[in-house]
Amino acid sequence: MRQLDNYPTHELNGIKYRCGYVQPFGASLLGDSNVNFSVFSKNATACTLVLYHRGEDKPFVEIPFPDEFRIGNVFSMIVYGLDYENLEYGYRMDGPFDPANGQRFDKTKILLDPYAKLISGMHKWGEKPYRDTEFPIRGMVIPGDFNWDGDKPLEIPLQDLVIYEAHVRGLTMDPGSGAKYKGTFMGLTEKIPYLKELGINCIELLPVFEFDECENGRIVNGTRLYNYWGYSTVGFFAPKSGYAQSGSIGLASEELKNAIRKFHQNGIEVMLDVVFNHTAEGNSSGPCISFRGIDNKIYYLLTPEGHYYNFSGCGNTINCNNAVVRNFIRDCLRYWVAVYHIDGFRFDLASILSRDNSGTPMSSPPLLEGLAHDPVLGKTKLIAEAWDAGGLYQVGSFPAWGRWAEWNGKFRDCVRRFVKSGSECGPELLQRLQGSPDLYSNRSAEAGVNFITCHDGFTLNDLVSYNDKHNENNGEGNRDGGNDNYSWNCGAEGPTENAEINDLRRRQVKNAAALLLLSRGIPMILSGDEFRNSQSGNNNAYCQDNSISWLNWEDLEKNRDTFEFFKKLIAFRKAHPVLRRKDFFTGVNSSGYPELSFHGTQAWQLDGSAPFHTFGFMYAETARDHGVKEDCFIYCGVNAYWEERELELPVIPDRMSWYKVAYTPELKYKNTKISGSRIRLAPRSLMLLIAK
Known about the structure:
Helix content is 20%, strand content 22%. With 692 residues, it is of the alpha+beta class. It has an eight-stranded parallel beta barrel with strand order 14-15-20-21-22-23-24-25. Strands 1, 2, 3, 4, 7 and 8 form a six-stranded antiparallel sheet that branches. Helix 12 (499-517) packs parallel to helix 14 (560-575). The longest helix is centred in the C-terminal third of the chain and has 19 residues, at 499-517.
């Protein structure tokens, strides 16, 4: 079949071409200088391929697709003798412009290929693409050769993950980060030794698909604001060139692959936050970049009047369960797994992926089922943010097929409320510690990704330092960002010199972290929480490419005890498989004790149906049941009350003694033997013990 590549049948202005291959979609290099172009449009009446020399304002040729080059709804063409390294391309689509019927074709506009593997003109962060040309965002062709040195996705069992959510720029842009290549994929790898010391084995990156950081740019109080987070995708197959030190020479793809390979060599998986709920084209007033001009009616959810449904809160909603769009999303994910060795994906506002073409939620959405059973994605982690901006909330009920996990928003809210003395959340907390069997009884504890903070909201330090959000620097009158934060400032709003308040905040951060890392389910940590990074009370820093969002690495030394606490608890979790058990077994194991039990101020006595501030929970871990070297008991005493409380310890076998592993009021953590049968907990504190 490939031998036909060498026989052009047409010529225009010295450019030779012929009918191409309909698969794969996008621009594919054939040999050294021939390129196959393939693009879908059901409703277009004609298509023209537009070719540019890199960086030039005007195309050097426009080649209309002859009728015989259209097979079904696919236009395909092989063009010969191209210098692909200096080539940019796009398409013109002709057809009806009839918005009331969902059609928005305009042959005067040049459109980005949805399958473009690299996008030009956006290689330097903060600089607008070729805005003074008719086609500012262009596709590029890249070769498929990269030496992976035997690398593949790591396939770490889901229950063993400790996820670290991070922003590519935010992790290293601060002057104190110590990174040479700040704000880049290369810069990420410079933090691998730090992440290994902390104990992280999975980094989850905020969006790295190409986006326009200058979208909705503005200046507020003298500071330029950007589309910093990147939840507004321009190109789904292309890495963000502005995140690459080598982006200016077209090597963003290679730089990202090299970073992923380095993470894998160090035992760290790479997970991507992906946005398939909307695109950067916005509503009817937004730009026509790609999908809108290629086949608006296919790619977007439209009302009967042709308006855009807005379940994303960003102006449009992708028509995810249309057969063509399903294939597009599947192709995209397969590409990132096969070509970039990505280990998993977190799906932003994933409940949109369950809606049909009228916006109605489906009980068995074909997209979600297809991804769950896809052969290429068979070992890939799939994690849903199980809600959307249209009011659909599916935590515990997201269509899963035994494959999908979820961000457990109920864990977040429960722990936040309990830690600030919300005794009414005590009974629910018992469920959350077990891995949320009330939510996932027909699945497993690894269906829930437990977290207390994420990019969207307060940092953990700010959660205990502010009662209210402080988003004035976003320029939206402090109206943006969530109001239901369940935060408590411990007695003063923001930074304070009050030593008592600062000590309490330090304890509260550790209390929350301990509950996260000692719970069954998959823990996720927001980058910087381990050293109390602050965003000065901003709980929606989506536009802040500055010290508000960048991790302040000076805080690492300032709060070294908090870092050591996180480090110790992560190592403790890894050392004890009883904490990572994925089923909901709480019965008696080979120790003769319940594997997980709950206790009040008196051992074995806790009314789990009534509010409480103070309790203990104990795991029984055995060599026989869990494959460890020796049996042990793990006890955690928790006091969310504002006064000191005493807890009776459960009686354990005579040959064993209790040892203190960590106590949140303390700054250093040494295993010390506990004498007696009771422990005394300071106000709002937590103590972790082990018996061996």
